[in-house]
Amino acid sequence: MKLSIIILNHNSAKLVKNLVASLVAMELPWPYEIILVDNGGDGLLAKEIKGYSIHIKLYEIENNGYAHGNNYGIRKAIGEYILILNPDIYIKAEAITKLVDFIEANESIGMVGPKLLNADGSYQNSCTTYPDWHLPFYRRTRLGKTDKGQVWLNKYLYLDYDHNTPKEVDALFGACWIIRHKAIDEVGLLDERYFLYFEDLDWCRQFKNKNWRVWYYPLAEIVHFHHRDSADKKGIAGTLTKLGRVHLISWLRYLWKWRKLRK
Questions:
Q1: Which CATH superfamily is domain 3-126+163-226 in?
Q2: pLDDT tens-digit series, residues 177-191
């Protein structure tokens, strides 16, 4: 089988249903499977996707985080390539085939991601360099508006690059990835010590460490209806929310894990 499509659901049954409907309507040119992992759901997803069962394998599991849920799907996948999708996206025409064609034509690439767009069509941050300890200060506080902060953010978000031509990058945001299954067999699965956040950055870094290249491919476009729940409150106040605390814990775990390496 060419492609396994994994969608992790957590209280987003209607979004998943719409995404599945759009995938089925695409009539992809090769054999594929859709693996839905319902992460601690309430049973609504099974009802929502009932009419599409011919294309779908549905697994209901306890909610042990984003990495655990996607890893569960990966273990069930049989495709040569694995496409991991967030529920809150809209896939533009031919984006999937463009991503598969690109990674298939470049054997050294282990992972590729598309250009992410906001609902109004504007560019959404899609790729980054490896961040250091400055990240929460420059992303969450007014320090990001200082000269040093702007220099740091320009490097971190590749803002000195037009984002319209393919580019090898350090890391991709995890809303949409195509991954070579053979590379996962060598690199390993997502690190489940991250309950939520930073598992995408960490995984990209693991791929690089095993000499698998990570590429941003803007000729494929995905609309991502993204909302940064962990950043609903700005600055230090953001860490007082539940998701803010989860975000901070994941960040500290990332810093500790990669403390001996410098970019």
A1: Spore Coat Polysaccharide Biosynthesis Protein SpsA; Chain A (3.90.550.10)
A2: 999 999 999 999 999
